[in-house]
Amino acid sequence: MQKILQEAIDNNRHWTAHGAVASYIPELAKENPDALGVCIYNIDNTTLCAGDSHTKFTIQSVSKVVTLICALMDKGKETVFSSVGMEPSADPFNSMVKLETRESHKPLNPFINAGAIVCTSMVQGDNGIEKFNRIHNMIKIMADNPAIDINQSVYRSEKLTGNTNRAIAYYLKGAGLIEKDVEDVLDTYFKLCSIEITALDVAKMASVIANNGITPWSNERLMSIEICRIVKAIMTTCGLYDSSGQFSVDVGLPSKSGVGGCIMAVAPQNMGIAVIGPALDSHGNSMAGKKVLEYLANELNLSIF
Ligand code: GLN
């Protein structure tokens, strides 16, 4: 298995040269475009890593998985999906075009920025700090790592330059889809994107979902089987934005990408996988990370289809 993991890195490292690090958040432009790493956390509690797996990166949109989990736990399926849809968007992650053209103004799904901002506002808490703490704690518990914290320079950079997200959030507020103060919700969203993490942390988080909501290391139920089922379904249909269809064909695992270069993948009843490769394709997904997952899915016969 270690050999397969090493091959997945070695055979696909050249793909890093075909992507580019995110530059619309200035602090992310400082990431190393050549980095490529992978970690697997099996539900039998064994773990394997290869490549630059110790690289620290910001979680970015992978946090949207945990935001959705918390919103579902706190408000229930009916309430969450009354304010956000469950259909793939076929538009870029930060697009706002369909907010206005659809009659309900509901964001299409929880994994585009608009949908995640609505879900953030639905999480339990009287204000942004309480909502952030709720999701941050869940990330720490799912990763079994109490030291996980915000990267302050990325947070400042996101907050300073996040004008598209600000436009989205104010539109949603106008449409009556955001509870409470809109700047407070945005601040929480920027903080969540800026959480600094490693591939092992993300692999462990994915292993909880793979294990139907139970931590493999302490046998503790963190969420219901139904929430895991919903989250895996949305990851499969919407997790890689407007290339989710192709990713399902090539890899076939419920997954979620982020512009920090991470992709979280869930092999149900089997393992959690995290790849990190900050050079992105034109959809904002890790260029070489996708190829590493494709290699592993083929070699280990992991596709759910
Ligand atoms: N912080 C990023 C943004 O809101 C997250 C997007 C992403 O990872 N796709 O633009």
From TrEMBL:
An example Gene Ontology biological process: L-glutamine catabolic process
Keywords: Acetylation, Hydrolase
EC class name: hydrolase
List of residues binding substrate: S61, N113, E158, N165, Y189, Y241, V259
Record field: catalytic activity: L-glutamine + H2O = L-glutamate + NH4(+)
One Pfam family linked to the record: Glutaminase
EC number per UniProt: 3.5.1.2
HAMAP family the UniProt entry points to: Glutaminase
Record-stated family: Belongs to the glutaminase family.
Name assigned to this protein: Glutaminase
Organism field: Acetoanaerobium sticklandii (strain ATCC 12662 / DSM 519 / JCM 1433 / CCUG 9281 / NCIMB 10654 / HF)
Lineage, broadest ranks: Bacteria, Bacillati, Bacillota, Clostridia, Peptostreptococcales
Gene name linked to the record: glsA
